[in-house]
């Protein structure tokens, strides 16, 4: 099994920028973006209308993918994507933690920056959104745990399958990752900039590289072998990523 173990390093080395991007005249402020995002995410009626317009959630299309990677363009509202990106761009450096690992039997080689969505008040309402997207899988409840992702120059993740167990609500409650998702949030990202999601387990064999497209949602069941190619751009690639977990049955598979 190869997954991604998080090793935090808050040192300033190799950071591309040391302060959030300034707000240009007439541009949406991160504070207003956060208010707009919360207004949408916390409005139950709007959430129900949105999910109804998308077929009721992710379970049916996910199971229909037959274990492959599901790519959904504009599945989430464009305004939600724009507001989330504005908040991400404005987060101070102190929020981001560096995860870096040289690679071993239990963790894939990787380097990128992350922050738990639950630790970013402006983005905390997204937790409810992800829960509504996949509240159950095959009749069992899920628990979504998501993070903000930031990749700069040379950041990447080597070959891994996302398998992992996490103790939640005490050491006796082990939850396993069952479904992974990445919500890509960088505008006009080009293939030449790297940072592609590389599917290492496509139907028919080989590998397929998927360029991160703004407001696209990528979903797949775990385990599934994949990687993220090295970023070559001198700008950040942003995303919201994470997993829906299910409680592990004692003595059973994860």
From TrEMBL:
Pfam families under this entry? 2OG-FeII_Oxy_3 (PF13640)
UniProt cross-references to InterPro entries, sorted A to Z: Oxoglu/Fe-dep_dioxygenase_dom, Pro_4_hyd_alph, Pro_4_hyd_alph_FE2OG_OXY, uS12_prolyl_hydroxylase
Lineage: superkingdom: Eukaryota
**SMART domains noted in UniProt:** P4Hc
Q: Which residues form a coiled coil?
A: none
Q: Which residues form the signal peptide?
A: none
Limits of the Fe2OG dioxygenase domain: 141-246
Which cofactors are required for activity?
A: L-ascorbate
Name the keywords, alphabetized: Dioxygenase, Iron, Metal-binding, Oxidoreductase
PANTHER family per record: HISTONE ACETYLTRANSFERASE COMPLEX, PROLYL 3-HYDROXYLASE OGFOD1
Protein name as annotated: Fe2OG dioxygenase domain-containing protein
Q: Name the species this protein comes from.
A: Prorocentrum cordatum
């Amino acid at each position: 099994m190869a997954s991604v173990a998080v090793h935090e390093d808050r040192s300033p080395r190799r950071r591309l920028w040391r302060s959030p991007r300034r707000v240009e005249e007439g541009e949406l402020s991160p504070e207003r973006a956060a208010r707009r995002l919360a207004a949408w995410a916390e409005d139950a009626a709007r959430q129900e209308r949105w999910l109804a317009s998308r077929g009721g959630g992710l379970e049916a299309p996910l199971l229909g993918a037959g274990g492959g990677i599901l790519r959904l363009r504009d599945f989430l509202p464009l305004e939600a994507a724009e507001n989330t990106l504005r908040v991400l761009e404005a987060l101070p450096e102190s929020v981001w933690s560096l995860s870096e690992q040289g690679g071993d039997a239990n963790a894939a080689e990787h380097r990128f920056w992350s922050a738990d969505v639950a630790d970013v008040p402006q983005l905390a309402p997204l937790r409810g959104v992800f829960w509504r997207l996949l509240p159950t899988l095959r009749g069992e409840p899920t628990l979504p745990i998501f993070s903000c992702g930031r990749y700069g120059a040379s950041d990447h993740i080597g070959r891994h399958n996302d398998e992992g167990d996490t103790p939640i609500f005490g050491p006796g409650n082990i939850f396993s990752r069952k479904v992974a998702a990445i919500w890509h949030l960088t505008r006009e990202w080009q293939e030449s900039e790297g940072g592609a999601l590389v599917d290492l387990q496509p139907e028919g064999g080989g590998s397929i590289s998927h360029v991160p497209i703004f407001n696209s949602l990528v979903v797949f069941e775990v385990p599934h072998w994949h990687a993220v190619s090295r970023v070559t751009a001198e700008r950040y690639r942003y995303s919201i990523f994470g997993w829906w977990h299910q409680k592990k049955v004692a003595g059973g598979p994860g």
